[in-house]
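This entry is set out below.
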Amino acid sequence: MQNKKPKIAILHDAFLYRGGGERLVSLMAKALDADLVSGFFSEGSFDPRALGFEGKMISLGKPVFAKWFRHAVLKYRFIQKTQFLGEYDIVIFSGNCLDAVRNIPKTTKKIYYCHTPPRYIFDFRERYMSRFPKWLHKIADKILDREAANYCKQLSEMDQIFTNSENVHSRLLKYCGFESEVLYPPVDVENFIPSEATKSEKSYFLSFARLSPPKRIDIIVDAFLEMPDENLIFTYGKNDPMKNEILSKIEWKKNIQAIQSPDDAELISLIQGALSTIYIPIDEDFGMSPVESMACGTPVIGANEWWLKETIIQNKTGKLIEINNRDIGIQNLINTIQNTTKEEWGSMKIDSIRQAQTFSLDAFQKKLKSSLHI
């Protein structure tokens, strides 16, 4: 007699941005035939249906956009509105939603896919604390210490923990003392494919990371403001926090073009036509953008930091540059672009495609199902 197919739910904190986490859980839910639950789904994020997910989508409430208010509302929803998750055989947590674990019985298998331990609690704490007046620091520290203890307690209730890179594996071990299994997020190499067409005569570089401070899109834009003969296209989402600031910088600049929320077909076409994509975030956990770029045969200019060093092979699938600070980052980006020929970018196509294949959706599905014994 065959084993009964387990009933699986994936809980993601919020579909707010068009980010890697949202794409990942949509593909994961599709692969596992799971129900997809979220604090909310918003128009500014990916539509799981457009990514091929056909299962049940359960929203815990309406979208909330004000940052600090959103954090409190989502925490309330995860505590008060997730009792139904006890009906599932397996619950997979994604993002900052572990408060829901209190509602799940011991008989349900609990899996955590960790994109990163909350950075405002751990490695980015000083940066977040700088936003508050000094007289509040002791109080804020106590609150964050309590949050850190609560997060570690929630981790202890997990039956299995996955991390999305060696970088996050090390971070989780360092700050929380928990081991994990590295499971790289998948890239849909069936859709992100190279084009047979030659690059456009009007060559351009592409950035399709979210417009938020950790992604350092301002450095990319400022570098191209100093290179009027080089062309940049960047994409952005409706809810991106730095949208207005970045867009105001490029008014009347003929060499920089902004495109809002392209669908996958348009995005893939943009990647295929670029000489290189640019991805230089601060201490990235795992970014799907570089792998999607390489899957299209387009090399990547990346920050020589953490996860990107796991993926980009210097001078074979792209160029790793030192950022250190804003001025150095701008200058190194300018130097890389001005000192690399169109032919050199083109020569990296085959190695880029091969590297992306190691992150295929098929490889991800097989490892995930094997680890979950389903």
Observations:
- The two ends are 15 Å apart (CA to CA).
- The longest strand covers residues 109-114.
- The first helix runs from residue 20 to 32.
